[in-house]
Amino acid sequence: MTETWQSIAQRKKTQQTSRIPPEWRLRQGITSSAGKANVLDVPRSCGILSSKELEITEKYDATALAAEIASRRLTSVEVTIAFCKRAAIAHQLTNCLTEIFFDQAVPRAAALDAHLASGAPPLSPLHGVPISLKDCFKVPCVDTSIGLAALCFKRSQYGSTLVSLLLSAGAVLYCKTNIPQTMLALDSHNNVFGRSLHPSHPELTIGGSTGGEAALLALRGSVLGVGTDIGGSIRIPAFCGGLYGIKPSAGRIPLGNIEGGTPPANHRVQLSFSAGPLARTQRDCELFLQTVAGQKPWEMDADVHCGDWQSQGEDISGKKLVVGVARTDGITTPLPPVQNVMNDTVAALKRQGIDVVELDLAPLLSRCQSLANKMMSLEGGNMMKDLLDAFNEPLSPWLVGRFARRQPRTLAETLDFHRQRMELENLLLRVWKGELGQTEGKRLDAIICPIAPHPVPPIDRWNAVGYTSDWVLLNCPAGSLPVRPVTSEDLKCEITSPAAENSWDKVNRELWTSVDRGMYLDSPLSVQVVGPKLQERRLCQALATVDDALKKEGFGSDVVRRAMESHEPKLNVRSGRL
């Protein structure tokens, strides 16, 4: 009998379910609430996790867990089991996982504990810490299907370069997380694994393409996750989940042997993606980047730039920061909640003594989105379409009308795209030096801007990607920083501009004028912090300074999480109507 994509998907989901131990499975009455209610409290109330396992998964971030494991106050085995159990719970509530390999993780953790017990030092600052991975990363003896029927049940023989690095660093890998079909969509749905759901706002998207990671982290089923980003695929899900996430510059984190459904070395010609961390604290993102740098990845992957952590940008810790503020990309005008959170952020930074400079980057950024879109798939998406057509897979809802076969770009077109990109990169260098963009002649330490022109939108309605893809085109490291939730006061605000400026702006306005705004209440609002090209250390220092300033002013991730945990969905999401 010839298999169909439906039969392959059914086999895959059956295999996935079998890898969750029976004693870790939720009662049917609990799982029936998935996609209909706020499920953030379920791990605490379901009775599967012990009091110590709740403490392990809720009291510590990755940095603190690493210290506890290194000092042998906690073992990697007990930490790993706690996160495996909580990941199993999170998956049953949000469909956030793809591959489950808890059976590999626990023996691995035991070996790492034995290493410390022998008196040997930790292998790295991440020794014994469980880390979750986006599905595109290859783990030996584990499938890497990226949600495509054509790639299911084909175990990877070798791990991705980053996976090998993390294993050498003593990390424990235990699961992979869900992604959208093609990994070019902003809502994590595919035909094999299905859709990942937002744990506190079931009517809203959890984002893409690293959406499974965001759902898992929001439910504390992971303490540190790894994703990829070519248009916003780390920063967007981090925003949706009220998390921190950093997209490094291309060439900073190894990308070898990652499954993308594209021709090998494609990233050397077209717009290149980056791998980076998602976490619940800023310092955990920094710990990940610092640990990777300490493993000398340039000796493992020819695409990685040589440079230890100390060389990744000038030291700006302790100095009075000069932060530029770019409020619009010149294409899509931010909606009231986004304008409000930018105002709140700027006011808080000024009160904390940070020098804030209003920038006019619209002339530069308005040229980026279209160019980034053209450079994202120079080969026309044909290899990915071949994989879909192999089993006649239909497109996911968000991709309908957005993804199709195209003629590959010519050499002349490709060269012209790179010429335009170089011109924009050089213009941005002048902005950093205070020579362009109304910088008042001040050299900038960082730039703050929105992640999107709208709040976290309903499922399959993410609109503009320019606010994130611009910084991929310009190859700047950028991070997502939670500020506060959407409030009832935000919902009362109206759009003041008289008319939409273009089709993108028109669709964006409809996310405010043609929906029940109540769906946005208590959802996260974040800002984006950007650093100069290949200066990840400098970006992390700027992120830490801005994060600290916001927390001193009563904003920050803790405020966002409390709002998400207390949120009561108001809409009839069962009907699918908004």
Automatic annotation (TrEMBL):
<protein>
    <submittedName>
        <fullName>General amidase-like protein</fullName>
    </submittedName>
</protein>
<comment type="similarity">
    <text>Belongs to the amidase family.</text>
</comment>
<feature type="active site" description="Acyl-ester intermediate">
    <location>
        <position position="233"/>
    </location>
</feature>
<dbReference type="GO" id="GO:0016787">
    <property type="term" value="F:hydrolase activity"/>
</dbReference>
<feature type="binding site">
    <location>
        <position position="209"/>
    </location>
    <ligand>
        <name>substrate</name>
    </ligand>
</feature>
<feature type="active site" description="Charge relay system">
    <location>
        <position position="134"/>
    </location>
</feature>
<feature type="binding site">
    <location>
        <begin position="230"/>
        <end position="233"/>
    </location>
    <ligand>
        <name>substrate</name>
    </ligand>
</feature>
<keyword id="KW-0378">Hydrolase</keyword>
<dbReference type="InterPro" id="IPR023631">
    <property type="entry name" value="Amidase_dom"/>
</dbReference>
<feature type="domain" description="Amidase">
    <location>
        <begin position="78"/>
        <end position="540"/>
    </location>
</feature>
<dbReference type="InterPro" id="IPR036928">
    <property type="entry name" value="AS_sf"/>
</dbReference>
<dbReference type="Pfam" id="PF01425">
    <property type="entry name" value="Amidase"/>
</dbReference>
<feature type="binding site">
    <location>
        <position position="183"/>
    </location>
    <ligand>
        <name>substrate</name>
    </ligand>
</feature>
<feature type="region of interest" description="Disordered">
    <location>
        <begin position="1"/>
        <end position="20"/>
    </location>
</feature>
<feature type="compositionally biased region" description="Polar residues">
    <location>
        <begin position="1"/>
        <end position="19"/>
    </location>
</feature>
<feature type="active site" description="Charge relay system">
    <location>
        <position position="209"/>
    </location>
</feature>
